[in-house]
Design goal:
The structure is a homodimer of 112-residue chains. Chain A is mainly beta. Chain A contains 1 helix and 8 strands.
């Protein structure tokens, strides 16, 4: 089943969350937001583009670091309001130098 | 490195996005939102609880379907504003009966 750009449900701020997964290892690398323009660019260029909410600007992942993410495919959830972008990363996803942004674990001090 | 509940950055609505991944297959199953109470419950009970934005209520995943998600660990991203919940699912994550909510692919009609 295929979903077109026009079917994607952007939120009140015009954004859709995009989970980025390594297509080879299946490791989840990061989560960021796309607006329509960055999603269109991602489809056109075959590399990930996001909308930076803090800087309020388009953000081509890897433009400065070189750690671009080549897109393998983009999956869409049942509500069409979340994307799963499967990529081949040229380097670490995280600005800390870690391969994934999810390199920490929660303490389980909430457990009884 | 370990992160405690008090360090999690909930958004203006008191929510944090939670990506759910099958701990065995590494398949990404769904994305939903947790508030502090549902995250606390998830930690305490060892099964996933979310905040349903549409129904505006706590949601114990699998309470009616039986398809609970047993938590293996919870990873936290570099900004502490997104969770990656690794689980053993008792059944399909999606209300459509699909194993994952991400069972559709985007058309690449945006490509040149």
């Amino acid at each position: 089943m295929q979903v077109s750009l026009s079917e994607i449900k952007f939120d009140a701020n015009g954004l859709v969350p995009a989970v980025v997964q390594d297509a080879e290892t299946n490791e989840v690398l990061m989560m960021a937001y796309m607006n329509r323009e960055s999603l269109q660019l991602t489809l056109e260029k075959g590399e990930t583009y996001f909308w930076s909410r803090s800087r309020e600007e388009l953000w081509h992942k890897g433009a400065t670091s070189g750690n671009v993410q080549r897109v393998v495919d983009i999956r869409v959830d049942c509500d069409a309001d979340t994307l799963l972008v499967r990529v081949h990363p040229a380097g670490p996803a995280c600005h800390t130098g870690n391969q994934t942004c999810f390199y920490r674990t929660m303490t389980t001090d909430g457990r009884p």
